Amino acid sequence: MHPTQESVNSERSAAHLVPPPSAETASSKSQAKSPSSAALINAKSTQPSKSPYVDATVDATQLYLKEIGYTPLLSAEEEVFFARTALRGNEASRKRMIESNLRLVVKIARRYINRGLSLLDLIEEGNLGLMHAVEKFDPEKGFRFSTYATWWIRQNIERGLMNQTRTIRLPVHVVKELNTYLRAERELSSKMAKEPTLEEIAALVEKPVKDVKKVMVLNEKVTSADAPLSGDSERPVVDFIADKNAQNPGYLFQSSELHRCIERWMHELSEKQQEVLSRRFGLNGFDSDTLENVGKEIGLTRERVRQIQLEALKDLKTIMGREGIASDVLSEFQ
To answer: Are 36 and 127 in contact (CB under 8 A)?
Structure first.
């Protein structure tokens, strides 16, 4: 079910961290804003020190860490209680789950420092993943929330890094505007289970479509076709450019964490299923390949390879459900 505009804007406030209400209006609006929103926006709006030798970003980060430190952690019993009531739509329980795990986001975000985003921006991206995890978490699976949430926090931070770091440097005000649109795009994509249109993004950020389009095109990444694919590879990017008419399963493994998990879970599949997935998606030393080529390599028809692939993905979803991981992370594999 798609969220209402009101609910989307509410979550956007918590993630983008809209300023807290003034003292005069705090009592009437205290239920509308999460304390986590106030903490991070207060940190980001901290006035820089007059001394040229003091890093204002460090001051802002310390302010945020201090404020979120006041929220107590949940016991296992409290976690189950609040998770259950949050699933039933209790907003207070949802906020409690989020606020009690903000320190987990910080812990994970620190691992991604020096990759193109400040710590506060990394935390902001991670908070979006945390909120998504709260909505998806099923306490009846028997797993702690932190184990489940770590996946979503990492995924959102990595996606944010991928979208917000680029070769061509843009003016600061343009980057700020672009990041706003990209965050809106990720929020809508998470809620709607599909790529949002420019019109939907424009509606969420309350901007004209033409303005959003003009800025979003600046997000296209530029790289040399002769550049190495990665630091560990001597093969240039051009060697990996696929036929436009061919499928590109490699895209499905943008998340290295998902890649590692699937390789581990695959040991529970049949040998034929393991071989098909390995050849299709570039696992276990194989290069990713098309259904037709995989069929030729293992002596099966293209259609049979497709059937085995679907069966294997179905079995993987069952395994993920057993381990308390939402199966919708495999939606891109269809």
So the answer is: yes
